[in-house]
Amino acid sequence: MKIIRLKPGKDRSLLRRHPWVFDGAIAKGGGDAGETVRVESAEGQFLAWGAFSPASSIRVRAWSFDEAQRIDADFLRATLARAIALRGRLGIESDGMRLVHGESDGVPGLIVDRYGDTLVAQFTACGVERHKQVIADALIELTGCPRLYERSDTSSRKLEGLPEVTGWLRGSGPTALVLREHGWQLGLDIAQGHKTGFYLDQRDSRLVCSQYSRRLNFEHMLNCYSYTGGFTVAALAGGARHVTSIDSSAPALQQAATNVALNGFDASRATFMDADVNASLRKFVAEGRQFDAIVLDPPKLAPTVAHAERAARAYKDINRQAFKLLSPGGVLFTFSCSGGIGVELFHKIVASAGLDAGVDGAILQRLGGASDHPMTVNFPEGEYLKGLVVMKRQQDVQG
Questions:
Q1: What pLDDT sits at residue 302?
Q2: What whole-number distance in Å separates Cα of residue 196 and Cα of residue 190?
Q3: From residue 86, how far is each of 79, 80, 98, 374 by CA, in Å?
Q4: For 325-367, how does the pLDDT look when each residue is reduced to its tens digit (9 = 90+)?
Q5: Strands, E assignment, the chain
Q6: Closest-CA residue to 111 (of 85, 149, 70)
Q7: Angle formed by the axes of helices 277-287 and 308-325, to 10°?
Q8: Any catalytic annotation for residue 337?
Q9: Which of 61, 143, 255, 322 stands the most exposed, by the fewest C-beta atoms within 10 Å?
């Protein structure tokens, strides 16, 4: 067994059971890509068993903090079984859900989503890549699903020194699927769509949007970065009279239109714009347009803290324009999926945007990832998605 010896004082995070060891913390030792190594303190004390990643700045990802634990097929199967069993207890109103959420489920670098009888997996780190076939067999056995598609085409693969890989790992068949969520039908393509094909992490927020639509009787809603129209369908289901959806992907908008039709909504209630969101927001402001509700769900702008300053300016700009477009009493659903933007910073960005727009906003609700995307107390990096529901106060209301 190969040993990784840490520098003095660099054992604190592992003692707190944080699963990452960065290259700068290592005094000596190494291993092959994905090989299980023993991590020790500078004094030789056992700290963890981990998977070695020779090309990544995250040099070791911890499998276990139990010295007696063997990292083998039985360990992997048991860990996956615990993750899958948890989802069975959550009462999720969908046949699309995340079954394995990487470090938060004790399987660093592995994402597994389920869409009906089809699994989609992303192997984003050397450890899970090394054990891919064992993991694939265990997933099929534990879920009873006949098909497993691989979407290992994330940017993190490059950081690990791994090539992009996509295709069927187990089974075969069409990649265009339809999932059920809160009574709605939502089409997706697991081979071509973002992430594993769909944004499952926004399931709870889509329901919240639908509920506000019903309570506040949205007349005109604007869905920015709409992708395949999840929030569009949610708002229409809540009774919104009309939703304008903007995205720069024509195929995504085509799927969004299909999703509106799948749920039986009149096509006249939805408009789809293949356009740049920033430019469209400015154009609408210049035209004096107003909306009762706006959704801002942009792509990841700050993957790490190093990108936070530049991303903060971009987030502030789109939120400022959105505040200007809200009618009095209107509601903004604004999100950040950037790991480099924390909850507190995102709040400050939105507050600053409102101030610049001359808007007094009331935060009605805070939002985050759905329950099948858990974070742990030892791994705060798992909290990447954060959102706010902000109402534009009606300035002319008399006390």
A1: 62
A2: 6
A3: 11, 10, 11, 10
A4: 999 999 999 999 988 888 999 999 999 999 999 999 999 999 9
A5: 3-6, 20-22, 26-28, 36-40, 46-52, 58-64, 96-101, 110-115, 118-123, 147-152, 165-170, 176-181, 184-189, 220-224, 242-247, 270-274, 291-296, 326-336, 361-368, 386-392
A6: 149
A7: 30
A8: yes
A9: 143
